[in-house]
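User: Predict the full complex structure for these chains.
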Amino acid sequence: MKVLLMGNPNVGKSVVFSRLTGTSVTSSNYAGTTVEYKQGLFKHDGKNIELIDVPGTYTLDPTNKAEEVAVEMLKEGDIVYNIIDATNLERNLNLTLQLLEEDIPVVVLLNMWDETKHKGINIDLEKLREKLKVPVIPTVATTGNGLREALDYIDYREIKDFDRLTSDQRWVEIGHIINAVQEIKPKHHSGKELLEEYTLKPWSGIPIAAGVLYLVFIVIRFIGEGLIGYIAEPFFAGPYYNLLMRISSLLNEGSFLHDLFIGQLVNGQIDFEQSFGLLTTGIFIPFAAVLPYIVSFYFVLSILEDSGYLPRLAVLVDNLMHKVGLHGFSIIPMILGFGCNVPAALAARNLDSKREQFIASTLMSISIPCMAQTAMIIGLVGAFGGIYIFYVFASLFVVWIIVGLLLNYFLPGYSSDLLLEIPTLRTPVFKVVLKKLWMRIVNFLKEAIPFVLLGVLAVNAMYALGFFDLLTRFIGPIFAKLFGLPKEVISALLMGFLRKDLAMGMLAPLNLTVKQLVISSTILTIYFPCVATFIVLFRELGLKNMIKSAGVMIITAVTVGTILNLGFNSIFGIIITLFSIFILIMILYRMTGKKHQRLME
Amino acid sequence: MKNRLISLSHLKEGERGIVTDFRGGEKLRKKLDSLGIRKGKSVKKISDMVLRGPITIKIENSSRIAIGRGMAEKIMVRLENHR
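Assistant: Here is the predicted structure of the two-chain assembly.
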């Protein structure tokens, strides 16, 4: 039996979904589209029930891709559980009435029932049932209240006869219903409401956003390092190491299989960061170095999502994002990129247009270092002082703006205007956060790990074939001149095409000056994402756009490397360089502004 | 002065207006309609992001909606008296 959960966005649909399902939940794309939905299985009264969390929709007369999918899914369901926000009855009833006109049984869950009292809203349930002619159950999804009663109606199969109305007729009808069932006593602004509005106003919202993001990164680091220090490393240094040493002695050092699975021994020992075998480095990096940060990152992100804060962030950065051809919500792939570029490249597909997807993927790949990379930058460059970490990130930010402005100017089209409901702030439900975390980790393992392993395999093959030596010999001297880096760094940079964190590791024993380290970290971030992201980009963008994107990356890396090397030599040079960068940004800013105006008319 | 139509983007923070007209196509009207912004609705401007960023409004006593500047300029409202 297929049960559809349908409703407007932000009404608590996902919470209901998490409450009703167990661990057998999956998140997938609707056939032929980029729209994601969640699916879960559970048993009720001995029957197998398939619960589908349909993408949030305001109307069955679709205005976007997610709503089109919702309409399609409606055809496949046996019953609809229409979840509506009791504190916003009028707008929610618009979808309810449309659902009632369809040929499918509908049960209405009047969610957030507890909040109506705080807001001075009084709803006459009996009258509402009478008007809608279907079961209406008050629920509080966050505590699970009312969900058991809701399940009692799972075999409800009555379809009531409702005339098809035009949009205007429907609003009139809703007006009648509202007048009959709802009473609102005006209330004064509560403290929470004030806070909600302060997060949206520029002068208070921007400092709050800075504080929230700072806290987010502190917590991510804290949890990530905790997981590495107390779980991952003890496991890898202990039982796993012993197992591998046994395999190593079985395979004989130097044999083909040993090279492939274990790699090179360092002083007769396995070194997880330098051995480069599939089972050593190939397993260690994704599971011990990256996964703990991914877990921690997704945990914090889920909390942020469920608290209703993200749309506020989108509003705050919308203007900046528009300048680079995106809009507020593209902040999400950008933030995701700081965790791992792979899910970020996947998230970019949810943006409005191919153009936005291209810009977001390219900018993210160029300027956003993933968690693994950031950890290496902090370790390597930070050893000389925090200010150098700032130099790297400041360079990346400037690059992000300039490349974004250029892409926005030269790519045809422009980004659509933001139109977004801002949900109320709420305390996330722990169980829901954990479930989301679980689904994301499973997806990450499925989508990213194979690519990482493929990457290590590819590196091994290319090393063995002498491909890297060849490249180093040919382009090494040119780049060495432009970037002011010794030749050895170039092979590390080439290595970075496949594995950035490892490439950073290769820089460590080279005794570089801090300036050289800043330059190489910056270039390493910019010029290509790791092979896993690369493959995902290829799949998402297609060959042609992937080549375009890669072209932008290479040109940017060479330009930035050269400027950082030659432009920051003397005080005089630094002033000239910074000044020219400033002028360039101003010019581009005006040019894109004019283009936007031209297209709007 | 009281009955003059102004666009949503010209409303000041904290001011209320009644939605009276849309200077845009059917697609725009439909999109706004599904979010509860339609003629006759009273909206209050909550915030106005710096540098021509999006504006945020509250519809009657329910939902808050953020609207890009370009779109907001096409929504015409009649200023309501302060209460």
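DSSP finds 25 helices and ten strands in chain A.
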